[in-house]
Each structure stands twice: as C-alpha cells, then as structure tokens.
Design goal:
Strand content: 25-35%
CATH superfamily of the largest domain: Metalloproteases ("zincins"), catalytic domain
Number of strands: 11
Number of domains: 3
CATH architecture of the largest domain: 2-Layer Sandwich
CATH class of the largest domain: Alpha Beta
Order of helices and strands: EEEEHHEEEEHEEEHHH
CATH topology of the largest domain: Zincin-like
Largest sheet: 4 strands, mixed
Mean pLDDT: 88
Shape: globular
Radius of gyration: 20 Å
Distance between the termini: 15 Å
Structural class: alpha/beta
C-alpha cells in the first residue's frame, strides 16, 4: 500500500433501532457509491476516490436501510473489523501468529519466524499495516495453492488450463468447464490438510463436473479423511480471517 493512501475507517449507525458497524473505503476505480455486505467484510460503503470529502456515507445507509437490515438478517456477518496492532493474532496454515509492527525500517513487507509475523514499515508510512500483511499473505497463498494444484493434479491424473488465486467472497474454490481453477486466498489461513482438501475437491471436478457419488468416491480416494475438513470449514472457515477484514 502506498504512503499517503487513505486507510479504511470504521463507524456505527443506528437503523430502526439496530446498531450497525460499517467500514468506509475509497476506491480509485469505483464510479459510484455502493454498499456491500458479506460474512468476511461486514457492511462496507465504497466511495469513489474523487468524491468530495463532505459526502456522508451514513446518508446512503439510511436511504438503503431496509435492504441493509434484510441482508444483515440473511448473511451471518462476523465481528466488526479491528485495527491491526502489536499483539494482534493472524492465522497462517492453521497456526496462530502474533503481529509485531516494526516502524523505521528500510523496506516494506513481512517476515514470519517462530510464530511472530513482523511487519516492516518505513518511518514515514501513513497507510494501513493490515494491507502489508494482506499483500504478503496473498502472495504466500498463490505460491502454496499453485504448488499443491500442480502436485495433486499429477496424482489424480487430471489436467487444468490455469490456476488463479483470488478474493472470492462466497467460495473456497471453483472449477470451470474449460479446466480453469480458481481458489480463495483465505485457504492459506487454514490447516494444510484443509487447504489440500479444497484443491483435491476442485481437481476432481475435472473428472466429474458434478457432485455425484463417483465424484465423492474420487475425492475419498485421494483424501480419505476429507469429511473432517468439511466439518472444520463449517465451524472455523469464517473465524480465521477476523483480524484481516
């Protein structure tokens, strides 16, 4: 994240007696104001970067309050985003890592050693350190997931056309009929066996593009304990990203 870029802010508003926590973000690519609600990010109001500063995002929330409240009842939003600070806990491959912010450094980036995730920032850094961590974690996710896909494709004896690691909001992975695989970067937060299961699952769709018994038999052949990963995802899938929202 570049120095000087406006960091997201968090605020609250009461809509028909319901206290709603929301995040305001400015996006240089956004053309219009919009509201999004997801289990990962909660309520987010995105504003075009060039929009005048006095524009009040709370007014948009009040205007759309019926829709916002309906979505909040339908979508299980986890706890509101928290700032990343010294001692914050993030997950990497299923293990807790404590954040250590290191200002006054000559470079920007992350190092993980002995359960400590050091976040290096120059003394004049004015951005959000969470974005540094996200960039590093997504880079690690791309490396790990693509390596797993290449290795497991050989074991399952299937071929894919490409692998992408993206910011998917509703899926852990997907497979297209053209053989393109897409994975959620959040898999890197999960235990290795869970990440492996998701990759196996999508690769098996290259053989059976459905959820038939033959598909699940193929999954079980290459991941006999896959059901424990399915249960783990139901219980923990959303929780581990809390510090990075």
């Amino acid at each position: 994240m570049q120095a000087g870029r406006i960091a997201p802010t968090t605020d609250t508003i009461t809509l028909d007696g319901t206290l709603v926590t929301y995040t305001v973000r400015r996006n240089p690519r956004a053309k219009y104001m919009r509201i999004t609600i997801s289990p990962y990010n909660g309520v987010v109001v995105t504003l075009p970067a060039r929009l005048k500063r006095y524009v009040n995002p709370a007014a948009l929330l009040r205007e759309k309050k019926e829709w916002v409240l309906e979505q909040l009842q339908r979508i299980p939003v986890s706890s509101p985003p928290k700032p990343l600070e010294n001692g914050s806990v993030v997950y990497f491959l299923g293990k807790e890592c404590k954040v250590r912010l290191r200002s006054g450094e000559l470079w920007t980036g992350c190092e993980l050693a002995h359960g400590i995730l050091s976040v290096h920032m120059p003394h004049d850094f004015e951005g959000d350190p969470k974005q540094i961590v996200l960039a590093w974690i997504r880079e690690q996710a791309a490396k790990r997931i693509k390596a797993e896909a290449e290795h497991l494709a050989g074991l399952i004896d299937v071929r894919y056309t490409r692998v992408s690691v993206r910011d998917q909001k509703t899926k852990w992975g997907s497979c297209s009929k053209t053989g393109a695989l897409s994975f959620n970067w959040r898999l890197i937060l999960f235990p290795p066996k869970v990440l492996r299961y998701i990759v196996v699952h999508e690769l098996c769709h290259l053989r059976h593009f459905n959820h038939s018994q033959r598909f699940w038999n193929l999954v079980a052949r290459h991941d006999p304990d896959y059901e424990s990963s399915v249960e783990w995802l139901k219980t923990n899938g959303l929780r581990m990203e809390a510090a990075l929202r």
